[in-house]
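Dear Dr. V.,

Thank you for agreeing to look over these. As mentioned in my earlier message, I'm a first-year student in the group and I'm still getting used to reading structure tokens, so any feedback on how I've presented them would be very welcome. I ran two proteins. I've put each sequence directly above its structure. The first is here:
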Amino acid sequence: MLVRWRRMAHLGVVVLLVAVVAAGCGKKSEEKLAEGLMEKTIEGATGGDADVDLGGGDVTIKTQEGTTTISETSEWPGDMFDGVPKFTYGKVTNVTRVDQTQSGQKTVSVHLSELEGGGAEKYAKELEAAGWDMQVVMSAGEGGMINAQKGDLGLALMYNTTEKHAVLSVLKGLDE
């Protein structure tokens, strides 16, 4: 499972970089070329078929395991799972959605910049007040992490106070 997450994270970085290049090009033929290159890279990494779509400002990757969508946005995702408090202590820079067809699990990750000092600690208190089971709240040096669970939802917030960046990932489909 960890290897799959690492592979998806690596692929997400590749996808994001190619998306930025493709968005800068702005030509349909260059977009199709970028899609084809990404598909071949993903197929080589996963050993299965992949379909990549760079249209509409989002990057969508479909494989046998499911669909991954990366959106460049400054808005909190409207499709965030019920019961997850909105993180208001930083600026949303992009949102990644992963829908794993085989397992039925779904993940929404919110990438944040301009993290406010003490924002993670304030968010931990909001989670606790909303009934989340706080499993790990850790701060060390330049960063920290929060892990919490509520029903079939698992939440992880990893942050760096020096860089003022954070990633909030919520997984739906945990065994209770």
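The second protein is here, in the same arrangement:
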Amino acid sequence: MHMKTLNADWEALAGQRMEFTRKFYQRLFERYPRYQELFPQELDTQMEKMVEMFSGIARFADHIDIIRPYLVEVGFAHRRLGIDAQDVENFKDVFIETLGELCAGWWNEEHEQAWHQALRI
């Protein structure tokens, strides 16, 4: 069910993924203003990268052996920016909260837990 849940949530956002990422970054920067200095002024390229990353996570959710090394690699790449484990948790919490709001018609505890599990490093 894990993979189906992530795929269903992500596919449901097919036409809204850029809007989702825009809302995500807006909320992230409102809640944690210091993160804004870590990103370029123009976020379009960053948002496209984020959409690609989460598309892969949703697609391969049942293959943790494929996803985990990728997530660890992304985490290490961000360490040069001073990102630590708490920052990753902040990112994950805002991501899941924003996703839950856009998927409000069917979102429940199972969906939230599936995303938390998939994004656990």
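From my reading of the second output: The chain has a mean pLDDT of 85. The CA atoms of residues 13 and 20 lie 8 Å apart. Does that match how you would interpret it?

Kind regards,
E.
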